Fold this sequence. Notes:
Layout: H1 3-49
Amino acid sequence: MKKSMSIPLLALATVFLAACNTVRGVGEDVQAGGEAIEDTARATQEEISE
């Protein structure tokens, strides 16, 4: 492989790995938000049922 080609490939791999971590982080944030909504809905339903 030419040396001039390895630098862009390395840069592309770095960007790809950073993007994976970002998407994973967003997914975890969305999941945590959904769980908070579920907890609030359950608590509200319990209060109404009493």
